[in-house]
Write a structure and sequence with these properties.
By secondary structure, the protein is an alpha/beta fold. The chain is built from 10 helices and 22 strands. It has 2 domains: 61 residues, Urease, subunit C, domain 1 (Roll), CATH 2.30.40; 297 residues, Metal-dependent hydrolases (TIM Barrel), CATH 3.20.20.140. It is 29% helix and 29% strand. Strands 3-2-1-4-20-21-22 form a 7-stranded mixed sheet. A 6-stranded parallel sheet has the order 10-11-12-13-14-15, sandwiched between helices. Strands 16-17-18-19 form a 4-stranded antiparallel sheet, with no helix packed on it. Strand 6 and strand 7 form a beta hairpin.
Length: 384
């Protein structure tokens, strides 16, 4: 058994001062405060006395980093990438696809399924992949961003099932434009299989967005980006996202994709329970300016922006920076910001993560008061 102590612990719903977290076999055994009578004699103690322990971050939308693209990366590339994620506080993630040819997508899904299964068997020396996020190919041509138009597909249950089979059932999230013909059937089928269906890359009207939600969608992908703009007479998809209390919504809080004032607006609209941070990071993250891959696409990183043909193409954001940014952009405190990067995404996708409590996986991150990562723990192991 190992005991981790800190100045403060956020579970994240509760705050415990002078916390003591006992970990055994990769799981949390107990969470105690100095007032609890239970002592911890003869146990290894790792002390972070001047920091806060918070649940490990969960990035449900990330394409890569440190020159690794998740659709193309080798095992060594993925090891490096997952270690990089952990050093930035991420303990769980969804490797996220980008629209590509069907053959390239199916091959990528097969490799990612193997990665998820091997991580479950062998453990990991970094962030653990828990499922696949399909960003495409069922996206609006009008709001496709950099997704190649030639590879976009008409939604159909048979097409979705082909992707599902290649991923061996590891698809846990699907971004889809609800206005497309056939989308409602795919949304309903995916939701029935336990997939978190997220509306995005969409030119939907308000009525079309509501139909997608009625069919089973429950989340919104990189809110404001690749969506029909909000209009006061034709509110469109954003009208539904901002006002439906049943929908959670994620945002890229890098200060580039969405103005800080609009990040604040989204937080005010969704509240602390439905506000989710993502990175949408690509292989350029953690790298110097240059050219990098996003699936089959080449993207240029320059001055913190990932661009292709004049369009933003993912980000170079890390989750710990997103946490610090949202504290500044929307006035969140550390407890709220950590929740938006841990419990909230986990609840959005229906996976038991993002809490520090008996029986939970011992996945947490140690932060300074300003949100700098001091250490990351995955299944009870401190990641170097």
């Amino acid at each position: 058994m190992t005991v981790f102590t800190s100045k403060t612990l956020y579970t994240p719903l509760r705050k415990i001062d002078g916390a003591r977290v006992c970990v055994e076999n990769g799981a949390v055994v107990s969470v105690a405060s100095p007032n609890d009578s239970e002592a911890a004699p003869n146990k290894a103690i790792t002390d972070f006395s001047d920091c806060a322990i918070v649940p490990g971050f969960f990035d449900i939308h990330v394409h890569g980093g440190v020159n690794c693209d998740v659709m193309r990366g080798s095992a060594d590339d993925m090891n490096r990438f997952e270690g990089f994620l952990a050093r930035h506080g991420v303990t769980s993630y969804f490797p996220t696809t980008v629209t590509a040819s069907l053959d390239a997508t199916l091959s990528a899904l097969e490799r990612l399924a193997e990665r998820i299964e091997s991580a479950n068997k062998d453990g990991a020396a970094g962030a653990r992949p828990l499922g696949i996020h399909l960003e495409g190919p069922f996206l609006s041509n009008a709001r496709r961003g950099v997704h190649p138009p030639v590879d976009l597909m008409k939604p159909s249950v048979s097409a979705f099932d082909k992707l599902w089979q290649a991923a061996r059932g590891h698809v846990r999230m699907l971004t889809i434009a609800p206005e497309l013909n056939g989308a409602e059937e795919v949304i309903a089928e995916a939701a029935k299989r336990g997939v978190c269906v997220s509306i995005g890359h969409s030119d939907a009207t308000l009525e079309q967005a509501r139909s997608g939600v009625k069919a089973g969608a429950r989340h919104a992908t990189h809110t404001f980006n690749a969506m029909r703009p909000l209009d006061h007479r034709a509110p469109g998809i954003l009208g539904e996202v901002l006002t439906n209390n049943q929908l959670s919504a994620d945002v890229i809080a890098d200060g580039i994709h969405v103005d800080p004032v609009v990040v604040d607006l989204l937080f005010r609209a969704k509240g602390i329970e439905k506000f989710v941070l993502i990175t949408d990071a690509i292989s350029a993250t953690g790298m110097p300016d240059g050219r990098y891959q996003l699936g089959t696409l080449e993207v240029e990183l320059k001055d913190g922006r990932c661009m292709r043909d004049g369009n933003l193409a993912g980000s170079a954001l890390t989750m710990d920076r997103a946490v610090r940014n949202v504290m500044k952009f929307a006035g969140l405190d550390l407890q709220q910001a950590a929740r938006a990067a841990s419990l909230n995404p986990a609840k959005a996708v229906g996976i038991r993560k993002g809490t520090i409590e008996p029986g939970a996986d011992a996945d947490f991150v140690v932060l300074t008061s300003t949100g700098e990562v001091r250490a990351t723990v995955v299944k009870g192991v401190v990641i170097q």
